[in-house]
Amino acid sequence: MSKTRIGFIGVGGIAQRHLGVLEQFGDVDLVGFADPDFDRAVAAASRFGARAYPDHTPLLDDASLDAVYICIPPFAHGDAERAVIARGLPFFVEKPLSLDIDLADALAREISAAGLISAVGYHWRYLDTVDEARRLLAERPAQLLSGYWLDQTPPPQWWWHQNQSGGQMVEQTTHIIDLARYLVGDVAQVFGLAGHTDRAAFPGLDVPTVSTASLRFASGAIGNIGSTCLLNWGHRVGLHLFGEGLALELTDHDLMVDVGAGRPVRHAEGDPVWREDRDFIDAVRGEVNRIRCPYGEALETHRVALAITASAQQGRAIDILASSGRAS
């Protein structure tokens, strides 16, 4: 059986995570890597006996690809996706989708019109503990949520700047927003608040150092999500959900289920990134499409994250379903 030829646009940290998975797949051939940091592209190409390119255009022109991974910073989206769509190639893109909701909306329409397979890296959806939480919540739906991304400041300089990363809600906490949508449903309204503290160790950092959001879901559930990058360690990343006689605490490592008879914790099993990559490759190869987060679905999570940021800047609540055209 022929191997699926994969090219990478962007070879930074998250790309390395996918490469560590894809190299385990016997039906995949990693054939080309493009990155403006050409030394990084060369290093990846040398590792896999592939070719290195300084940008995506020669990669797409030369490599006879079957699919593409796009792993680039938030500010860099647009040209790469459009070039891949123009060539009719399925693609996996890492979150967040862009800093411009109009661009993301336009790309979603182009992907749909072209009938392309797409996937976005919201890998929490692939946790077996999340599957269990969905089963429990089907019987006792969540009415209250509390989410957290309480962590340190990542080292990439682009992350420190609002006009490059979009801030912590958009670049990191989006995983918690997506998990909340996956477990509870569409978000109808958000209200965000944000604050900033200058820090000598991070000169020029202008993203909010603390932020919070109140959310109202279409189901009637309500929630809050808080973020900070002020710490020097990862303190808490997760989502708590409460329904009738049910309390759940989810992280990317475990699930605690409390029904009033103790607080048993079960650790997640398997690798969710392996599962999301496997589903994408299987779909590209013409097998059953089990992708849990195609581009259009990820767009609705991204819409919420950007609306939270806009709400904090504007000092008003923002209606999500009305702005997305999905209101009933």
What are the key terms here?
globular; 15 strands; nine-stranded mixed sheet; about 325 residues; six-stranded parallel sheet
Question: Which SSEs are present, and which pair or pack?
Answer:
Layout: E1 4-9, H1 13-22, E2 28-34, H2 38-48, E3 51-53, H3 56-62, E4 67-70, H4 79-86, E5 91-93, H5 101-114, E6 118-120, H6 128-139, E7 144-152, H7 162-165, H8 168-171, H9 174-184, E8 187-195, E9 210-217, E10 222-231, E11 236-243, E12 246-250, E13 254-258, E14 265-267, H10 272-284, H11 295-314, E15 318-319, H12 320-324
Helix pairs in contact: 1-10, 5-11, 9-11
Describe this entry's structure for a reader.
The mean pLDDT is 96. α1 crosses α10, α5 packs antiparallel against α11 (295-314) and α9 (174-184) packs across α11 (295-314). The chain has helices spanning 13-22, 38-48, 56-62, 79-86, 101-114, 128-139, 162-165, 168-171, 174-184, 272-284, 295-314, 320-324, and strands spanning 4-9, 28-34, 51-53, 67-70, 91-93, 118-120, 144-152, 187-195, 210-217, 222-231, 236-243, 246-250, 254-258, 265-267, 318-319. A 9-stranded mixed beta sheet has the order 14-13-12-11-7-10-9-8-15. A 6-stranded parallel beta sheet has the order 3-2-1-4-5-6, with helices on both faces. With 328 residues, the protein is of the alpha/beta class. It contains 12 helices and 15 strands.
